[in-house]
Amino acid sequence: MVVEDGLEYGPAKRRAVRQLGLSPRTPLPGNDEVEDAVRDYIAVFCADTQPTELLALRRLALQWMERLAVFRPHLSGAVWHGTATRLSDIYLQLFCDDEKSAEIALIDMGVPYEPRTVTGFHHEPVEALSFHARCPELGESIGVHLMIHDLDDLRGALLRDAKDRTPRGNLDAVRRLLDSF
Known about the structure:
globular, 7 helices, alpha+beta, 181 residues, Beta Polymerase, domain 2
């Protein structure tokens, strides 16, 4: 479901429980286990297409990061971790002095967006601005989600995860990823 339908881990796990007819209280695998399964699936079924799709998504993410550089953008999610396919969305974390400034920037760029509130990486509510961006390399529109965080949150944003990886990368880190392709 993550690879074939483009679902995020949480919704995919909940859908799997429903499809299997299990109780909603059924213990679910952790995200690290799901990610390992996604990597295995990609290696077996998508090895011929996924690297090109990932490269296109990372290039599109970099374009938006450069446009929004004043907000200290960091790429996260499947595009950052390398498990993205053409059905994956791009998640950018912005670190702003004023949360409305990113919204104003999108308006100034003429980008129609959908605002909503989501759970941030510290499990607190954060503003998210979502829109679609055309990806010429893939020939389709890709969902882009800007998570708006306070500038002070940047310090905690780079703490390593359970696999000792950086959970998100700044402009320079994304450029290095693209250079290594």
